[in-house]
Automatic annotation (TrEMBL):
Keyword Transcription among record annotations: no
GO cellular component: nucleus
UniProt-recorded name of the protein: Protein CLP1 homolog
Biological process terms in GO annotation: mRNA 3'-end processing; tRNA splicing, via endonucleolytic cleavage and ligation
Region annotation (Disordered) ranges: 44-69
Length: 337
């Protein structure tokens, strides 16, 4: 808990509760970052050109290892911008946790008001692409294709909305920062044309990014200290947190699919008992060829499968017909506990 002006708090837990007052805090540096971003937004808004670099607000990407406070910093920067009257776009590329929607998706949504710490991010009109797994390593090419589709869709939206363009975006990333994970970070920075890279709690990563991005004059790489309130989460805790929406995956390939040389190829799935308890995305696509380039309307949960009649029974968030006839299967399952 951090406060600028002091606060009174009430704690439960008895002897198991430990509390202390920290002598140091990175909040000053976080607020300084907000001030710089605010100045850039004002300059972008004052620009008379609608398609030049000068009219583009800050595109901030937050990177760092697991449990470094990336999601928290992203929410703070978005909330502070919303308090100033901006409507920045929040982009979540972390398929493992899912800050905007369920895990296994990449998504974006405008933030119009400060984010409630309990209710989370309001979901009015999120732009969601279904990846279907909780780690990019299962299908790297598909992950990169969806990231590119999301970025291109946002570019088209910004081209017709000067206010959103000036407000910019804050991009949250996954904690995989080595090897292929590092390459995916570079891909995201390039694809979204990020001009501010905030590195949390990783001296080596900051040095590597500064070196590889040194020829991009308009990209600033800034190292920030991670908050002392950040704690390491165990795998069990992560699974439990993810389970509030969806349980962990059970296999690496969609049911009935065969390994293929093209990782972005769409494969038809047979109706079988293996579909039971799986989560399917409802695509806006009209034809199978449009699945990868189309975002999704929502999700359904399979509660029963009738193989003989080739029918499934499902739960949906609302009654009525589904907004699309094409369902997408990944490896996400939900088991009530």
């Amino acid at each position: 808990i951090f406060t600028w002006h002091g606060a009174t708090i009430e704690m439960d837990g008895g002897a198991d509760t430990s509390d202390y007052v920290a002598d140091e805090t990175p909040m000053i540096s976080y607020v300084n970052v907000h001030a710089v971003l605010e100045a850039r937004r004002n300059r972008a808004k004052a620009s008379s050109s609608s398609d030049s670099d000068s009219s583009q607000g800050p595109r901030v990407i937050v990177v760092g290892p697991t449990d470094s406070g990336k999601s928290t910093l992203s929410r703070m920067l978005l909330s502070w911008a919303a308090k100033q009257g901006w409507k920045p776009t929040f982009v979540d590329l972390d398929v493992g946790q899912g800050s905007i929607t369920i895990p296994g998706c990449i998504a974006a949504t405008p933030i119009e008001m400060p984010i409630d710490p309990v209710e989370g991010i309001p979901l009015e009109m999120p732009l969601v692409y279904f990846y279907g797994h909780i780690t990019p390593s299962i299908n790297l090419e598909l992950y990169k294709v969806l990231v590119k589709e999301l970025a291109q869709t946002l570019e088209r939206q910004f081209a017709g909305n000067a206010e959103s363009r000036a407000a910019g975006m804050v991009i949250n990333t996954m904690g995989w920062i080595e090897g292929v994970g590092y390459e995916l970070l570079l891909h995201a920075i390039d694809t979204f044309n990020a001009d501010v890279v905030l590195v949390l709690g990783q001296e080596k990563l900051c040095s590597m990014l500064k070196d590889v991005l040194k020829n991009k004059l308009k990209v600033d790489v800034v190292k920030l200290q991670k908050s002392g309130g950040v704690v390491s989460r165990t795998p069990r805790y992560r699974q439990k947190s993810r389970g509030h929406r969806i349980r962990a995956p059970r296999s690496a390939l969609p049911i009935g699919a065969e390994p293929t040389a093209d990782p972005t190829r769409v494969v038809a799935v047979n109706i079988s008992q293996d579909l039971l308890h799986l989560v399917l995305a409802v695509s806006f696509a009209k034809e199978p060829e449009e699945i990868i380039s189309s975002n999704v309307a929502g999700f359904i949960y399979v509660t029963d499968v009738d193989v003989q009649r080739k029918k499934i029974t499902y739960l949906a968030p609302s009654a009525g017909e589904l907004p699309g006839r094409i369902l997408i299967l990944g490896t996400l399952a939900w088991l009530e506990t």
